[in-house]
Amino acid sequence: MRTVAVLLFDDVEVLDFAGPYEVFGVAGGSQRLYDVFTVAQFARPIAARNKLSINPDYAFDQMPQADVLVLPGGFGTRREKHNATVLEFVRDRAAAAQSVLSVCSGALLLAKAGLLRGQHATTHRDALAELALDEPTCKVLPRARVVDNGKLVVSAGIAMGIEGALYTVAKHHGQALAAATADYMEYDWIHRAVDGHHVVRTHRMPEGAG
To answer: Measured by CB atoms within 10 angstroms of the end CB, which terminus of the chain is less buried, N or C?
Structure first.
């Protein structure tokens, strides 16, 4: 079973973190494939967008090893991208993870952490210009919904975190299981095929990968 850490911070976009949380939490049905938990800088309630209060499972210094790191977006990223402790956390935990998924303006955290240098990425349409400024060496793909750089998968705005999470499940366990997960969620998984426009893969998949 893989472990999944979902980063939380004040003013995080609710669906940005809740969408991937749901995907990884229900993938595999009764045969659980992921242990999903939340993490924040401090062990205190987080005020997400529209004042939704969430109690993170762990503070940074308490968090166990995570195989998958999820970085959601929201207005809080404009503050947290200047938070040296958060950026150090992102760098350290991304290095230790097998997979990293950013959602929406979570890409700005990756950029400020130096993890998008020379990579391809997308984000919410309102943050595309900001992403290009934060990491000039990154090739920003405004039409893309999901961009796969290998270890690092970047998804566009808000609901596209569900698409990015399903894509990541497909990489780990195959397209059929990811499709079954979407079906269970009654979610119309639109961008499942790598087409070079909406779903972009920038690397060659390993032999036998899903």
So the answer is: N
Q: Report helix, strand or coil for 137.
A: coil
138 is catalytic: no
In a domain, 111, yes or no: yes
- Model pLDDT for residues 67-105, shown as the tens digit of each residue: 999 999 999 999 999 999 999 999 999 999 999 999 999
207, part of any domain: no
Instruction: Give me the number of domains the chain comprises.
Output: 1
pLDDT of residue 208: 45
Instruction: Provide the token pair at 27.
Output: 């993938």
User: 7 and 72 in contact (C-beta within 8 Å)?
Assistant: yes
Among the options 104, 116, 141, 170, which is catalytic? 104
Query: pLDDT tens, 166-185?
Result: 999 999 999 999 999 999 99
- How far is 25 from 35, CA to CA, in rounded Å? 7
3-state secondary structure of 152: strand
DSSP 40: E
Answer whether residue 210 is part of any domain.
no
Residue 74 phi, psi (nearest 5): 130, 170
Q: Which residues pair with 69 in a beta bridge?
A: 5, 100
Q: Do 122 and 142 form a contact (C-beta atoms < 8 A)?
A: yes
Structural domain harbouring 62? 2-201
The CATH number that applies at residue 145 is 3.40.50.880
Tokens of residue 58, six digits: 């762990």
